[in-house]
């Protein structure tokens, strides 16, 4: 069934039709990514490495069905979206699909990169998988379903309640949706939100009965807690436990817990809140993990509890270009309350493996120092390739070991999708390269590699035409202001473009024939960090073209 889904992927960014004037279109060969310079953390046979999903994979939601575990992540205005992963040991994860992979499911036209598909929730009931999600500024809350978590997933059924971060709590044959909404009272301050619950008729796909506010503001309203969100409910030993993120998804992020005897409350905050945070630690500590929160619990068949959650790994200060990542830690229960990590304890980069049968190593690693190559020799691009916004026409073909890009929108033009297909930057230190064949016919036409955090913060390194001449150029854009950093004449023929990332700097070189030359070294690219660019995503790097 999963193999049968590959033709769907051809539509998600592209199609398989013949491009007009394909001989003039940019052709990219062999995309190489090497993150092994990141350095290796020693891991023993009974240990695993954090994060379990490196790079821009935030807001994890997890569910178990039998011995199988499934993760779904937020993806905002990137398409295909809501990546779905599978594991049998909670450590080795393989992407099996993208829940949003057809243009008729969600339309991201005019969306900024950090709008659209926010935090999802995945669950399973009566032979069917459910994802509830919010398409911010593009429809609101909705539910989609699938018999196979690899897909195909249904078109959305829209749900009439405001707010974000819905999740489903199943109790027997009844379902309830809990989510972040505006408080019942007038908002007291910026970031004052509440957690609500309402019954969901899963057979009719509609909300029924009254909505009840469960949490107002957070753990202690007198302290003006902000952005209570990402709620999940579970039941254990006669109590309903509600866990949620609090503090906003930056350095003050945390996870908190409440419990009640009745599903609709009243809920009492736990005595040890927050049950996960890194905000009280020395920011100058080695190998910091920050911004932790947005957790969800899962129980193994043996009764052990684990939590997936997001975190970040800055390369300096609060600078990180690769986005929010997914981590895993055990949950311990003390006196009826859960704890993910004791206070003032750094998130470990190495921890004891869950007591589960090991999954086979994934063909494409998601954690640690790794490298991969895409020869563009398949029928479609693989599942990890994504673009920006929903394409309305084919944007690529694969032909003879080349990726051929069609005409698309300029980066920055939110009215449509650019001809940009990319992979997540998953390491602060990485080398990315591809070989390009392109002769621009008009001044301003360009093709090459783009590293993109948003429509306003990106860089372009590749071939363009300036004053009638074919040149190699490096452009950077910070806050929407694009400037030419370096350019050099370029003879006809293929050019291999190489970007070397080193934390907040990148270096750029080109190889033509047997000669390699540096174009620019140690360029400050902190404008690709979340700290500078804002938003909720991570840097994507891949082939891009704009031409007439």
Task: Write structural notes for this entry.
By secondary structure, the protein is mainly β. The protein contains two helices and 41 strands. The strands form nine sheets. Strands 1, 27, 29, 30, 33, 38, 39 and 40 form an eight-stranded antiparallel β-sheet that branches. Strands 31, 32, 34, 35, 36, 37 and 41 form a seven-stranded antiparallel β-sheet that branches. Strands 8, 9, 10, 11 and 12 form a five-stranded antiparallel β-sheet that branches. Mean pLDDT is 94; it is low at 1-23.
| Largest pleated sheet | 8 strands, antiparallel
Q: Strand percentage, roughly? A: over 45%
Number of helices: 2
Percent helix range: under 10%
Secondary structural class: mainly beta
Describe the SSE topology:
Blueprint: H1 6-13, E1 27-34, E2 47-49, E3 61-65, E4 68-72, E5 78-79, E6 81-87, E7 94-100, E8 116-117, E9 121-125, E10 128-136, E11 140-146, E12 157-159, E13 164-171, E14 174-181, E15 194-201, E16 206-216, E17 229-236, E18 239-246, E19 254-260, E20 268-269, E21 276-277, E22 290-299, E23 305-312, E24 325-334, E25 337-339, E26 350-352, E27 371-374, E28 387-388, E29 396-399, E30 402-405, E31 419-420, E32 423-424, E33 429-437, E34 446-452, E35 458-466, E36 469-478, E37 481-489, E38 495-502, E39 505-512, E40 515-524, H2 530-533, E41 540-546
Antiparallel strand pairs: 1-27, 1-30, 1-33, 2-26, 3-4, 4-6, 5-28, 6-7, 8-10, 9-10, 10-11, 11-12, 13-14, 14-15, 15-16, 17-18, 18-19, 19-20, 19-21, 22-23, 23-24, 24-25, 29-30, 31-41, 32-41, 33-38, 34-35, 34-41, 35-36, 36-37, 38-39, 39-40
